[in-house]
Amino acid sequence: PLADPPEARPPLLGERDHMAPPAQSVGLTPLVFGRESENLPEGVLNMIFQARAPSTRRLYALKWSVFSTWCSTRGKNPASCDISVILSFLQELLDKGRSPSTLKVYVAAIAAFHAPIADQSIGRNNLVVRFLKGSRRINPSRPHTIPTWDLSTVLRALKNLKPLTLKTALLLALVSVKRIGDLQALSLSPSCLEFGPGDSK
């Protein structure tokens, strides 16, 4: 098949994630974990799956969804395609102006769902590692010494922004300096709203 069946797709962004789904429900078969896990019971695989934080799982699911759609339009299986397909996808992202750091997140997400190639994770594949290194060399990060946006324009927009949710999202983006993907991965699920005594955490 070109894509996972509906019941095996990664959880979509925004789904409640306070109880993580079992490994199989997001397409993480024993093959993806490696040959040594082929005979592990479902409960053990699910526990391994829990190693990633809910926000990381949602972020990876979002990136994986983009890659899966890209593969489907080209008749490729995203979970077992050749390394050349993955590199072509990364090159297309780079051509569209995506930064090397964004590509690195995509690689991590693909590695989480894609079957190992020659018993090696996608993220450790020699060609992928060299590709990312080349992208960083050609597109070195340049820290901004001053804001690239006009503060007065932002304040005027904030004043006219009616929904409180949008104002909160904008202020959170400004003070946290997070990537868009990180902000999208935020959740209101109970597990993400737990506080210790005296609101210590």
UniProtKB/TrEMBL annotation:
It comes from the Eukaryota. InterPro entries: CB, Integrase_recombinase_N, Integrase_SAM-like_N. GO terms for molecular function: DNA binding. Residues 40-118 form the Core-binding (CB) domain. The keyword DNA-binding applies. Residues 1-24 are annotated as: Disordered. The keyword 4Fe-4S does not apply. Keywords: DNA-binding. This is Core-binding (CB) domain-containing protein. It comes from Cirrhinus mrigala (Mrigala).
